Amino acid sequence: MKKYRVLILDMDGTFVDSFPAGFGCCLGVARANGWLIDEATTEIIKDNWGSPTDIIVDKCWPGANYRLLQKALNDSSRVIPPPPLFPGASETLRLLKYRVDMCLNTGRRRDGAMPVLAHYGLMDCFARVVTKTDVRVTKPHPESLERLIVPYEKGLGFGRDAFLFVGDNPFADGECAKAAGIDYLAVAESSNVTRRLLAKYEVPDSMIIDRFRDLPDWLECR
Question: What is the pLDDT of residues 68-121, one digit of tens each?
Fold first, then answer.
């Protein structure tokens, strides 16, 4: 780890395997409201998962009320026990916390994010946490990243090349990192994230890992 001094991590799809539960919730809302579900729709959901809910609904069901889906997802994010971590994620986070500062930047609301960290005993892994509750504009707008980066810039004089944003969604996370002027590493472990999708957003192979637990080895090669 010669280059990055601060890792900023997304949660869902990055070290929490939440897509299956979220996808099921999405389909349940669609069925309950009579929204069309076909192969094309499910592919759109998968490719855009992690994007703001209104974008997903507008692409799949133009004119439908996205708040119905948002409420269902908010409610499901507070369910305990939460979705599982990816294999080796807990051990990876505990290893990294002794090597580099880590912050969390999640699209979950705070009342959905903090119980996940508490449930898996990960509260002490993150120096700072920014959630959807804490910002006015969600990812891919860079406000959430700026809230984490600026204190390091002002307090310790870190340049933007000291930060790495690790996430799964090339739109919500990748475009957010680009807007903030920091590097982005994509984790392609979630079942909805493919190298085809990442290539669409021009994420180079050198900035993709297939499993979250590969992160320490990837960092060692920087």
Answer: 999 999 999 999 899 999 999 999 999 999 999 999 999 999 999 999 999 999
Sequence ranges of the domains in the chain: 6-17+83-220, 19-77
CATH superfamily, domain at 6-17+83-220: HAD superfamily/HAD-like (3.40.50.1000)
Mean pLDDT of 201-207: 96
199 Cβ partners below 8 Å, 6+ apart?
A: none
Give the residue from 2, 4, 51, 33 showing the smallest Cα distance to 166. Answer: 4
pTM, two decimals, is: 0.94
Q: Work out the pLDDT band at 209, boundaries 50, 70, 90.
A: very high
Q: Does residue 2 have a pLDDT over 80?
A: no
How many whole angstroms separate alpha carbon 43 and alpha carbon 73? 19
